[in-house]
Design a protein that fits this description.
Structural class: mainly alpha
Distance between the termini: 21 Å
Helix content: over 70%
Number of strands: 0
Shape: globular
Length: 180
């Protein structure tokens, strides 16, 4: 469920950026490229910040839900940025940073917590579930933007990530008590 919600939100946000840039930010097409660039920089920094979790499973279990919730809040801030390009850039940078931390931790936990004999099956299943979420989120973007507007569609992506974080927190709390 966490992976499905995480990739659903990602599928929404990636295809929404073009519509959001034109309709909400009222910015030229070049701003879309700048947003992707600032997002990539945030992702690079997020990946570097997530590296210490690779040696501490207990820390990773605690950090995954917080990172997902923080990325959802940052994307909600991005959705509510209105015509403020500075606020949009800052909130999208923070989103990308925390989303990447969550993604790196989630990949780590897939590997660490899967028994060796099932690791390939678990990872391929999770990849397939994530891809389904991505396809659903991406394909619904245009329809949702027309139905409720790009801002509300972006808020839906944020709620998806926050929901994934809450679900991950509840799941990891139970898992931590039983397994770690």
């Amino acid at each position: 469920m966490v992976v499905l919600a995480l990739w659903f939100g990602l599928g929404l946000q990636e295809t929404l950026l073009v519509v959001f840039t034109r309709t909400v930010l009222h910015a030229p097409n070049s701003v879309y490229g700048y947003l992707n660039t600032i997002g990539s920089i945030g992702a690079l920094i997020g990946a570097a910040l997530a590296a210490p979790f690779s040696s501490n499973t207990r820390s990773a279990i605690k950090s995954l839900p917080m990172s997902l919730i923080a990325s959802g809040i940052a994307f909600c801030a991005f959705a509510l940025s209105g015509q403020s390009l500075v606020f949009a850039f800052c909130s999208f940078f923070v989103f990308s940073l925390f989303y990447t931390i969550a993604n790196v931790i989630e990949e780590l936990l897939e590997q660490v917590l899967s028994p060796n004999e099932y690791r390939a099956s678990v990872m391929s299943t999770i990849g397939a579930v994530g891809t389904v979420g991505y396809l659903i989120g991406g394909s619904l973007t245009g329809w949702l933007s027309d139905l409720v507007g790009p801002t509300n569609t972006a808020i839906l992506a944020a709620v998806s990530l926050i929901g994934a974080g809450i679900f991950a927190g509840l799941t990891m709390l139970r898992y931590r008590v039983e397994k770690v």
